[in-house]
Structure of Leucine-rich repeat-containing protein 24:
Amino acid sequence: MCSPPSLSFDRCSDMALPVLLLGLLALRTDACPATCRCYSTTVECGSLGLQEIPAGIHPSTQTVFLQDNGITQIHQRDLAGLQGLRYLYMQNNTISALEPGAFRSQQHLLELALNGNRVHLLNSSIFKGLEHLRVLYLAGNQVTRLLDFTFCDLQRLQELHLQENSIETLEEQALAGLSSLALLDLSKNHLRTLSRAALRPLLSLQVLRLTANPWRCDCALHWLRAWIKEEEGQRLLSSLDKKIVCSEPPRLAYQSLLDVSGNSLICIPPVVQVEPLEVTARLGDDLRVSCQASGYPQPLVTWRKVAQGRAGPALASTQPLSGWAELSEPRGALRFDADTGSGMLFLNNITVAHAGKYECEACNPGGTARVLFHLMVNLSQQQQPLGPRAYPASVDISQEPLYNMESMDFNALSMATQTAIAVGISLLALVALLLAIMIYRKHRKRKKAKKEENILYVNDYSDGPTTFAQLEEYRDERGHEMFVIDRNKPLFGEGEGEREANEPFINQGLPFQPQIAYEIHC
């Protein structure tokens, strides 16, 4: 009696359940990126030739496979919506750039595989947000150095795979913060030395792999040789990992570090030479100073500007890399050759702020050596003084780090300098004009005097004017002939003044007539 209704309800319920499951499955399938395979909380996009992380991955996804593609970069926006992600595998791509904060939203990520890519630079900003990460694969990349505090945010990391990179330098605080790390693989890199301080933060370390590196067996590896023989080294290193083979010096090449005597692990303290030790440069010049250092191992060279008798912060990075390290300064760039053994101090567009003392420092495990270089700046060719002792020929004013040229003090100095130059130029122009006038007047006087020296006054006692025949007897001592400029123009005319001048002679009855003179030139 009541069975039909009951049967009808049960049948409806049985039919509704599969429809609901199909709807949920269809909804999940719609959130799967094209060409990828999605099931449960996993998205499989491996070996599809992808150039970037695909969009449209469902936010509830916990595992993503993106291996064996052509992805080149990881941006923060690529993974921003995947806050529940726990496993991300991106090995064997061509990733060379990781944007700072690229994994900031992945606070639940446990495992990250980036091995087999082209990553060359690592810093702490890349790993922000990965507080729960347990395993990090970075093997087979192009990393050359590990900077201080690179992994400081990965306090729960248990495995760090860095083998098959090109790591040459492991800074002392590079592994700081890895207090939970149990496995560290640094095999097959370019490490030549390793400090004891670099491993101190690894309080939970269980496995350490250091083989297949070109180790330089000198005094810096004394500790490693002793540590391998101690209980801790015996526990952390397998029998294979204990075979640390020397690559240099040549006399120890191919020998095991354990077989080398402690007396053979030597270092030669550095010797530094700066040539010249003192230079006077002009304003606006470019200066290059070489600091050569010798020793074993090859010393690392840095430059510092001395402030108040003490060396200030290092101006050059201490990285042992070939190439140039540059600091941007508004007054002139400071550039340094960061290669070990030699350091170049470059000062471009020198100003008075560059004047002072610089210190070249060379360090190796055997010790430290320092040499001072003194730079003076010559102002004489750039600023015209108002007086003979207004400015010194060279100055050494700055014993402090280079200051900002836009400060009020420097602007005031610049205005004074411009005023001094303008006044100096005006004075020089006035002096030049006066000299020109004096020279011209003197030249005219000399010319007039010379003209008068060449004039001969001939007295004519005859009744008529002087003839050319009479003039022929007038020659100078060099035999030069004389000629009449104007025979009809007496030098002393018959004017009133002449008559008055001649009257005394007439009144006195002197036996000669007034003289007539003609102007004769040689």
Notes: The CA atoms of residues 423 and 503 lie 64 Å apart. The longest strand covers residues 367-378. The first helix runs from residue 3 to 30.
